[in-house]
Amino acid sequence: MNTRPIIYEHPLSERIRTMLRLEHLFNQAQHYHKGASVWDSRMTISSLFDLLDLFSRADLKTEIIKEVDRATANLNALMANPAVDSDRLTTILKALQHITNNLHEISGQLGQSLREDPFLTTIRQRSTIPGGTCDFDLPSYHQWLEQPSDIRHTLQQLWLRQLEPIQQAVELLLKLNRNSAEPQQFIAEGGQYQQQLDNSYPYQMIRLLLPHQATYYPEISGSKHMFTIRFLHANGTADEPGKVVKDDLPFQLALCLL
After folding, report:
1. What is the rounded distance in angstroms from the CA atom of residue 67 to the CA atom of residue 21?
2. Where in the chain is the domain with CATH 2.60.440.10?
3. What is the DSSP string of 142-206?
4. From CA 140, how far away is CA 135, in angstroms rounded?
5. What was the pLDDT predicted at 162?
6. Residue 166 CB-density burial (10 A; 0-12 exposed, 13-18 middle, 19+ buried)
7. Binning pLDDT at 50, 70 and 90, where does residue 236 land?
């Protein structure tokens, strides 16, 4: 029986919202990249296109650099705290500096070389059409998909490696945020919970933990000022799906700030 809790995350800033989406797509791309089938390659490329769509934001690199700089400044302020592991903190600060250097070395728009790749461009143009990447639509794509998996894997790795500076920044920033707070126990009276947030603290993300066997799920809305949680019955339960749970429910919550 799976005893691992289900974790629901909700961003409290637009930067964290974007990074969570990027993390999702990077994880998806890496998952299918490990596979050997034709469909794994198709999904890897589809994930790559979704990443490029997010990368099309002109300010994305600047926003991530600002978030790295903000995290660096906040962590530097902890250096004077004797309760902090200075060696570990120094290691993290060096990693952030390395990421900053890598981001500054990127010239032009993120993923520009992939946008200019003729092979990927042809596939991307057809991918907006339902079923547009069928074999008869893209014979060159069909030919490539019929190559041995190691040949496809090598090229996929080359494409994904060009996005590594952003992936590394996203992974570290989200890890630091997630590790910034320990979950605390709360009660949702009548299936609902609301909390005001102190604006003097830079809260970035809510992490809500429920037992894996829970037959309900949270609907979270909020911003840096306040958030609200409603627990709803899940599909497949004896109760009406989508209806608010009326019982008092215990849950764990971490308010992450960095």
Report:
1. 16
2. 180-257
3. HHHHTS-HHHHHHHHHHHHHTTHHHHHHHHHHHHHHHTT---EEEEEBTTEEEEE--TTS-EEEE
4. 8
5. 92
6. buried
7. low
Looking at domain 180-257, its CATH class is mainly beta
> Looking at the chain, which residues constitute the CATH 1.10.3900.10 domain(s)?
14-176
pLDDT of amino acid 56: 87
Helix (H) or strand (E) holding 174: helix 164-178
Is the separation of the CB atoms in 227 and 206 below 8 Å? yes
- Collapsed DSSP state (helix, strand, coil) of residue 123: helix
Cα-based angle 56, 62, 66 (whole degrees, multiple of 5): 140
Strand partners, 228: 194, 221
State the CB neighbour count (10 A cutoff) for residue 47. 21
Q: Enter the tokens of residue 60.
A: 């994305």
d(CA 99, CA 61): 12
Q: Please name the residue that has the structure tokens 């952030």.
A: 96
Token reading at 229: 């949680």
Per-residue pLDDT, 150: 95
The superfamily (CATH) of domain 14-176 is: YacF-like (1.10.3900.10)
